[in-house]
Write a structure and sequence with these properties.
heterodimer, A: 650 residues, alpha/beta, Aldehyde Dehydrogenase, Chain A, domain 1, Aldehyde Dehydrogenase, Chain A, domain 2, 7-stranded mixed sheet, 6-stranded mixed sheet, 12% strand, flat, B: 474 residues, 13 helices, 28% helix, 21% strand
């Protein structure tokens, strides 16, 4: 809970008053339980500053006043008409002021955990905005249905707002920037079920997929920021070498300005909040364009709003590819894109025109390599999960499974059993492994890839029925595919569906070559009991991330950076490297304000040349003699520079 | 948006305040080919960006974060601050003044044109710019039905309200209470969707520029032009120049600007004769659902000569949950219990035609101080109104009647009255400042006293007349 205008004590006072005015009953939570105090700045931000000062002071007093006395005060207020005017006036102001703030916080219905108005059976609507009760963010761009294309959105205004907000947040300390992110973490935990409902509705994923792979990593990343961000981003004093004696050097980590975040549809909430949080903590404003397939309309705004992030600081704008391109034309200071290789290339090309730095998190075709000494049971289960989680719609899904020939048949038969057990349902209680495909465009593509492979000789080892007679377009079952060859389209094309091609390999060299024979290089996994071999293979793999005896797990550790090589992307995010990629890493050197003339400034003379040469030789030769010589020549050089500085070249 | 240091043209006219008066004046002057600059302290919002919650509505659409008070905090004032002014947040009620109002104005101001015969053509012109509707009977909500039933049972006379609105989509379940923070359907005939829209269309001979988030501090007479100095939200100071200035910042705004511009020394009456039609909302709890917040918020009004002669009128109103919660005298659990019954509450308000003039002054730090209390006569008018409301509620089966705690002044009128005499008024019958050519006003600040009728339509009519005077004198 943070406020720009009230400190912790004043907020505590306000909360106390709130609980006196609204103690809660069987129908309603008490004031503090509604957790709407976080919206306080939206109310008092426009108050005249003198009133604000009075309010803060008064609340501080109330913070130390026992609740019983506060109750007595309100009782007294009900009798105010009995008092002479000079007393009644202040009592009335106190009364209206406190009630005004408390009731506004409580009855404006900004809490998403408890819909107070709904409990009161009070519902007021405007037709074109009916629907999501989430859309409460005040000034956020939430254009109605007919207004999605950028032609009708004033992008200049959006960028102007973002620029102003960016310069504001840049002035805040890291701790101040962190406050709403901690709030955001708590909110996500609090509203988890509601958020999963929304995610499920738009993505068709299973409930557990949403919990494990969206909600958890969001909270985990925000928690990591809470613990580590200040340490990573604070101004750092660095060493200054002896030649620059008397000076001090620093690295400042500042925001870049306006970061444009363009997100994909596979993990819509995670891919929104995590890059946004990265950008914010580093001191940037954000313009966020979700995928048109999974806009989660209003959800991100509402979360950020409740967390106390102003709607200028993170502006959510809905639209398709044309909008994305229009936004880039307005020259954000950085583009963070997660999505397909094709779009990534277009974005980089357009960004190149304006020299906008880009970070691209693109696709993958991740290999999983199982050596003969791997634990079969574990690696089989790992393969099933790694390939099928989120119905295979992850950029780090296992898309190529290489199994050593010695264990191939055994592994294969266990895998068929394991994959056959996968339960597929868009569930309501967490009791399902995978859901359906998110959109028909991707489902069509996956089907075409598999049909092409089957037509050219590949064989489905599981759920073969689907080849002939699928239940529905979006319900693609988990399929293990054997016999995939380079003639088939599926060979080097990202599948992004619950399809797992399985291959046999004979030697380490062979499998490394085959794993690296791909235009992608996102992540990989190596399964073996031999740690030396694991390290050797890991170092040979041309990918950005490798898990050993596990799969897709580097993403699970927020201390590790994430990103790909080759067509899988550019740059890293998450971890310390990820934070720094949203920063202007500014080098700063401080010197004193003296009359001293530096040795390397004009005029250059032959004598100076020789002295400097001697100094340099002494410095890098090392040893005690070197140091003594360095001091000697250094002194001489200083004196000479001083003299030349005053009198000039002879 | 211009900023400090940028060069600006000398405008033909600068209009301060984009409420009903400022917008109509701007439109009329643009029609006559004048290049106008309209300055507004509030934000320039539209149907996509109007606030969605009472919280944000109060904080973003009004001065001082939502509400202001008189000196002893016995009346709260709502003073809109947004492009379109009151027309964004009001319920768009349009009524012509009757002879009772205009006769008393003539008497107070000695201005002869303040009569229906001479004003009707201007009323016609004003109305022609807006769509005006009455709420069809079939859409009236529970609150309106109680109003009607109670009036009929007590033999009071009522009439349907005339509202500036169009296509409010009641058939699709629109709840007009939502439009108190700005209409998201563009149905309410607010200034930005009517006259301002036309003035900005580029089809008129004159050009209109709107600068929002800019608060005017002073107006002064330069060597040949009028000079306006003010500041943007971020504190940047800026000066604009024009041949003439029209003040449309309302009673408090105009008083503040004129006082800060040192006109108070000559014009002693600045800030005096301030009226506000104090409104007292009374709630009644029924043992059935009323759903006063559904559908059209206001459909009916009192139309009773007896009420009129006794200086009050009754209105069929309701308000959002935050406002309702503030009206209740209870606190703690008792308060929550009544809030739980919010859908069973009906509401009627009495608006008093106040006779006791208030005074607006500006203290050294620039804060507006309002001295405004009810005198014996005003209190009598209020109690007569409250009695009538009580009769209505009692005759319709109310379980409990709850008198609202906070009287509100929504109609802020006077303070810079119009009149022939420079001692008792501020603007002359040509709408021009006494003793200073080229500074005009036609908003509610020039009202000589409280008319007892909703002021919007008359402000429009006077503003059109004012614009006519301006162009005639140029």
């Amino acid at each position: 809970m943070a406020s720009k205008y009230l400190d912790k004590t004043s907020l505590r006072g306000l909360e106390k008053v709130g609980n006196v005015l609204i103690p809660g009953n069987q129908h309603y939570p008490k004031f503090s339980h509604l957790r709407t105090l976080r919206n306080i700045d939206r109310i008092i931000g426009e108050l005249p500053s003198a009133d604000l000062t009075d309010l803060a002071l008064f609340l501080k007093v109330l913070a130390w006043t026992p609740s019983l006395f506060i109750k007595a005060l309100f009782w007294l207020i009900t009798k105010k008409d009995l008092f002479p005017d000079f007393l009644a006036g202040p009592l009335r102001l106190m009364d209206i002021g406190l009630k005004g703030i408390i009731y506004t916080l409580y009855y404006s219905n900004t809490s998403q955990t408890e819909n107070i108005l709904k409990s009161m059976e009070y519902c007021a609507e405007t037709p074109s905005y009916e629907g999501s009760p989430m859309q409460t963010n005040t000034a956020a761009m939430t254009p109605d249905e007919g207004n999605l294309e950028s032609g009708s959105i004033d992008l200049d205004k959006i960028f102007e707002k973002a620029k102003n907000a960016g310069s504001q947040i840049g002035k805040l300390t890291i701790r101040e920037r962190l406050a709403p992110l901690i709030e955001l973490k708590e909110l996500v935990l609090e509203r988890q079920e509601e958020l999963i409902d929304i995610i499920q509705k738009e993505t068709n994923k299973s409930r557990s997929d949403a919990l494990f792979s969206e909600i958890f990593p969001i909270v985990d990343t925000l928690h990591w920021m809470e613990v580590e961000a200040e340490n990573i981003l604070k101004d750092k004093k660095v060493k200054t070498p002896i030649v620059l004696m008397g000076k001090t050097s620093y690295i400042y980590h500042q925001g870049l300005g306006v970061v444009l975040v363009i997100s994909p549809w596979n993990y819509p909430l995670f891919q929104a909040l995590v890059p946004i949080a990265h950008a914010l903590i580093c001191g940037n404003a954000v313009i966020y364009k979700p995928s048109e397939f999974t806009p989660l309309k209003g959800a991100v705004e509402s979360l950020l709003n409740d967390a106390g992030v102003s709607s200028d600081l993170v502006q959510v704008i809905y639209g398709g590819g044309k909008l994305g391109s229009d936004l880039i034309e307005k020259r954000p200071d950085k583009i963070f894109f997660t999505g397909s290789v094709g779009t990534g290339k277009k974005i980089m090309q357009q960004a190149g025109k304006h020299l906008i730095p880009v970070e691209l998190e693109l696709g993958g075709k991740d290999p999983m390599i199982v050596f003969e000494d791997a634990n079969i049971q574990r690696s089989v289960k790992g393969a099933a999960w790694g390939a099928m989680t989120n119905a295979g719609q992850s950029c780090t899904s296992v898309e190529r499974l290489y199994v050593h020939e010695d264990i191939y048949e055994n592994f294969k038969s266990e895998l068929i059993v394991e994959v056959g057990k996968i339960k597929q349902l868009i569930d309501t209680n967490g009791n399902s492994d995978i859901g359906h495909m998110t959109n028909s465009q991707q489902a069509k593509k996956v089907r075409a890839l598999v049909l092409d492979a089957v037509a050219k000789g590949a064989k489905a080892l599981t759920n073969e029925y689907w080849i002939e007679s699928p239940k529905s377009e979006l319900e693609i079952p988990a399929i293990v595919l054997e016999g995939v060859t380079s003639e088939m389209e599926i060979w080097d094309c990202e599948i992004f569906g619950p399809i797992l091609p399985i291959f046999k390999f004979s030697s380490e060299i062979d499998v490394i070559n085959r794993a690296n024979d791909s235009s992608f290089g996102l992540s990989a996994s190596v399964w073996t009991a031999d740690k030396t071999r694991a390290t050797r293979v890991t170092k040979s793999l041309e990918t950005g991330n490798v898990s050993v005896n596990n799969v897709m797990l580097t993403e699970g550790n927020p201390y590790l950076p994430f990103g790909g090589v080759k067509n899988s992307g550019i740059g890293r995010y998450k971890g310390a490297h990820g934070l720094l990629s949203f920063c202007n890493i500014k080098s700063v050197l401080f010197d004193g304000n003296s009359s001293k003339v530096e040795a390397n400034w004009y005029p250059y003379t032959t004598e100076k040349y020789h002295l400097f040469d001697n100094l340099m030789q002494a410095l890098f030769k090392g040893g005690i003699m070197g140091l003594i010589k360095f001091a000697f020549y250094g002194l001489k050089l200083e004196m000479l520079s001083g003299k030349l500085g005053k009198k000039g070249r002879a | 948006m211009g900023h400090a240091g940028a060069a600006h043209p000398i405008y033909d006219a600068i209009i301060v305040g984009s409420g009903v008066s400022g917008s109509y004046v701007a439109y009329e002057l643009c029609k006559k080919g004048l290049n106008c600059l309209l300055l507004e302290a509030g934000q320039n919002l539209n149907k996509h960006t109007y606030p969605r919650t009472e919280m944000d509505g109060n904080a973003n659409l009004y001065w001082s974060g939502g509400i202001e008070f008189n000196k002893n905090a016995s009346i709260g004032f709502l003073r809109p601050k947004v492009v379109g002014g009151g027309s964004i947040v009001n319920q768009a009620l349009l009524d012509r003044f009757d002879d009772i109002a205009l006769d008393s104005w003539r008497e107070k101001s000695s201005i002869n044109f303040l009569n229906r015969t001479e004003l009707d053509p201007f009323y016609d012109l004003a109305e022609a710019e807006l769509a005006i509707e009455e709420i069809p009977e079939k859409y009236r909500n529970g609150n309106a039905n109680i109003f009607k039933e109670g009036f009929d049972k007590n033999e009071y006379k009522w009439a349907p309200l005339k509202r500036a609105q169009k296509d409010c989509k009641y058939d699709r379940g629109n709840d007009c209470i939502e439009c108190l923070n700005g209409c998201r359907l563009d149905s309410k005939q607010s200034m930005p969707v009517t006259v301002l829209k036309k003035a900005l269309s580029g089809e008129l001979p004159g050009k209109l520029t709107i600068v929002s988030d800019f608060e005017v501090g002073t107006v002064s007479h330069g060597t040949s032009d009028k000079k306006i100095v003010g500041f943007y939200k971020n504190g940047d100071v800026e000066t604009f120049k024009a041949k003439i200035v029209v003040l449309g910042a309302g009673s408090m705004g105009n008083t503040k600007i004129l006082t800060q511009s040192d006109f108070g020394k000559k014009l002693k009456s600045i800030g005096h004769h301030f009226y506000t039609h104090p409104q007292y909302m009374v709630l009644a709890r029924y043992d059935k659902k009323i759903n006063a917040h559904k559908g059209p918020l206001q459909s009916l009004k009192s139309d009773d000569l007896n009420f009129r002669q006794n200086g009050f009128k009754l209105e069929n109103v309701f308000a959002g949950p935050v406002a309702i919660s503030m009206l209740l005298p209870q606190w703690g659990d008792n308060h929550s219990k009544i809030m739980n019954d919010i859908t069973k509450l009906a509401c009627i308000e009495v608006a008093v035609r106040d006779t006791n003039p208030g005074k607006i002054s500006i203290n050294r730090s620039g804060k507006i101080i309002v001295d405004k209390v009810l005198n014996g006569e005003d209190k009598l008018r209020r109690s007569k109104g409250l009695k009538a409301i009580e009769n209505i509620f009692n005759s319709t089966g109310a379980v409990e009647i709850i008198e609202g705690q906070l009287p509100i002044g929504l109609h802020l009128m006077g303070g810079c009255g119009i009149g022939t005499d420079g001692k008792s008024s501020v603007f002359n019958p040509e709408f021009e400042l006494h003793d200073q050519k080229g500074i005009y006003a036609a908003d509610s600040s020039i009202f000589p006293n409280a008319p007892g009728i909703n002021p919007s339509l008359t402000i429009m009519a006077l503003s059109i007349k004012c614009a006519e005077q301006i162009t005639a004198s140029m």
